Fold these 2 entries.
Entry 1:
Amino acid sequence: MKNYIVPIISALLVGFLLAKFMIDQYDKKENLKTIFNNSNTLYFIRQGIYSDKESMEKNMTDFSYYIYNLEDDKYHTYIGITSSKKNSQKLKDFYEKLGYITYIKEINISSKSFMEVLEQYDKLLENTDEEKTIKAICSQVLSKYEELILNEHKN
């Protein structure tokens, strides 16, 4: 009987150590995912898609500030950005009430500095329904996006 106790205890000890090792590896992988996947989903309010720059500029004269992106040889114009799904619907409804057809597009951004600025503007946007204030907030956010994201990628 004594001959079996030592191998059984050794097998249990090895099993315990291997299980602990596997659990520690799993925890490390989960932590790495959160460290390297630090992008945030933003909601862009898209106003339109244009085939050429001239028609885009002609149709965007109603907006004091907008940004555009060239995708698949088409100009996609954006008139608002928010990090809140609730605010994205608020902006969409706001512009549609003014007579514009808008779409919400989700884009992932990893700029911490832009996210900090956007959080402040989102708080302001959440607490207002005034047309001038909403338009001013949208213009400021787009300006900051251009400054902190677009210009950063150009350099």
Entry 2:
Amino acid sequence: MRRRSWEHFEHDADIGLRATAPSREGLFEAMAEALTALVADPEDVRPVESVSIRCEAPDDALLLTDWLNALIYEMATRRMLFGDWRVSIDGHILDAVARGEAVDRARHRPVVEVKGATYTALSVDRDSAGTWHGQCIVDV
């Protein structure tokens, strides 16, 4: 089965995140990785501290924006970056643990501040082969 992957794409003054994964949970983890990659290299983030996150929404697309906005909130208020995510989804309730560390400007070299995930170009779906696809535009 194909591993998860992600990419960034241009969208006016904002930036798009797009990912694929073999599971819904993997898709949400890949989108989190794509989000962190806007700021710094996720591989440079050590999993020192764990933060629990819970989101609930009426559908997968809205759950994705809630998830990304919860991560953005935690990154801003805790002054952290995350490099490891463990997501579990039951229905439309997401429980996750994000692991990361405080931003070290010299080591992480943050390049942009993400303000929020939007509903623009938002989608989450599963293709006939069972692969999950998602995308979202984030305001930077």
